[in-house]
Specification:
Elements lengths: L7 E4 L2 E7 L1 H18 L6 E6 L3 H8 L7 E8 L12 E4 L9 E9 L3 H11 L5 E9 L12 E5 L5 E2 L15 E4 L8
Parallel strand pairs: 3-4, 3-6, 6-7, 7-8
Antiparallel strand pairs: 1-2, 2-10, 4-5, 9-10
Bound molecules: 1-O-pyrophosphono-5-O-phosphono-alpha-D-ribofuranose.
Length: 190
């Protein structure tokens, strides 16, 4: 473990402990890329990252995708600077790509209550794509309030507050290369 990959970090005054290592992330992200490359061969999908959280996962995923594809971004916000969802979604940036008749893969860092992803799936379907599929690095099935079918999941996790690898606490911590869990929830991991 190097200095730059610590076991604990402090973010906005809260202690977080290492939860998913860089090695585990690298392995799982390349597996997901292989799966999607196999399933979307000859479909030239558009991968749509949901900003901000998905930017690191999507970037790493793309490096392992071996088929022709396109990338675009949609920006939503539902958490603001809080640890729990505000319960409503704000659109901050629309797509540039024309998705009509195209195969779309929506990419999230985390599906928690499902609010954001349900919103995105409905929003994309309005634009008449050929298909819409969801991929998320993390999924908290126990936190579901808005059901959405998630076809590709990196890791299923309990209802924990996580940080790093694109995910923030009041906008900080996205640059951490590994995933951390807030200390007062650390025990629930076992
Ligand atoms: C986070 C995360 C997902 C969403 C998941 O985004 O990136 O988009 O919350 O939670 P949900 O399933 O309860 O909707 P956030 O609104 O915090 O914005 P960010 O991506 O800019 O951090």
């Amino acid at each position: 473990m190097s200095f730059y990959e610590p076991e604990t970090v402090v973010c906005n005054g809260s202690l977080f402990r290492l939860y998913i290592t860089k090695e585990q992330l690298d392995k799982r992200v390349s597996e997901l890329a292989r799966e999607i490359s196999r399933d979307y061969k000859d479909k030239k999908p558009i991968f749509i990252g949901i900003l901000n959280g998905a930017f690191i996962f999507l970037a790493d995923l793309m490096r392992h995708v071996s088929i022709p594809c396109e990338v675009d971004f949609f920006k939503l916000s539902s958490y603001g600077d809080e640890k729990v969802s505000s319960g409503h979604v704000t659109e901050r940036k629309d797509l540039d790509a024309d998705v009509e008749g195209r195969h779309i893969v929506l990419i999230e860092d985390i599906v928690d209550t499902g609010l954001s992803m349900k919103y995105m799936v409905d929003r994309i379907r309005e634009k008449n794509p050929a298909s819409v599929t969801v991929m998320t690095l993390l999924h908290k099935p126990d936190a579901t309030k808005h059901y959405v079918n998630v076809e590709y999941v990196g890791f299923q996790i309990p209802t924990l507050f996580v940080l790093g690898y694109g995910m923030d606490f009041a906008q900080e911590g996205r640059n951490l290369p590994q995933i951390y869990v807030i200390d007062d929830e650390y025990e629930k991991k076992f």
